[in-house]
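Could you help me review a protein record that somebody else here produced? Here is the record exactly as it was handed to me:
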Amino acid sequence: MEILELLKALILGFVEGMTEFAPVSSTGHMIIVDDMWLKTEDFLGKYSANTFKIVVQLGSILAVVVVMWKRLFSLVGLYKIDTEESSKQFNLLHVIVGIIPAGVLGVLLEDFIDKNLFGVETVIFSLIAGSILMIIADKFGPKNPSIVSLDQITYAQAFKVGLVQCLSLWPGFSRSGATISGGVLFGMNHKTAADFTFIMAVPIMAGASLISVLKNWEDIDMNHLSFYIVGFISAFVFALISIKFFLKLISRVKLMPFAIYRIILAVVLAVIVFL
């Protein structure tokens, strides 16, 4: 594979890693950058290019594992986190309950999403829709959240956030934007909602990547393996940088600045695409 093509993988990994955990939609940004500039579909093929956009997220997921390993290991009994009441400790069942809605719906709609929603035009509308939800969360969420740590989340709240996460199946809506907004509306502070979002991301994104790879295996050329590897490593490195920064930032600025950015981006894209 040529150096120029590997550079494209590096750029897409950068876009993925820097945007995955901000509520701006990493997949939406990759679709925009790729479809309007890099055009990897020309040499990867449509389905392999779409699969890359999902698989590259595994680099970001590995970054979550590195940053939040204590919480993640505690879910499977490999690490003990001290809490005031062990019976209320955040556990694996919270995660399972949270990912079931999007997991089931994602499997049912996988073909439809892959064929119809991976495009700049659909991303423009999802950017706006996600912004509206984020503004609603900041404006109408509790002023004094009752849930300020993962250990205070109930199973019912985890499930309700999981329902909201279904909106993120629409590329451009943003998984973190949807789940953080849902968490805030259901009584969590922004930091706790973000922590829950990142932990839920590990199994659901790993599962989505596995399904996409298995489904499109015949369309993936092993000659393109280096492209996937470069994108994966790039996403991992830049996600490590962005996660810690975002977790500090979200408690200060909330969701509104990200919503405004999304609206501006959607307007600019609409002018370029439709005019």
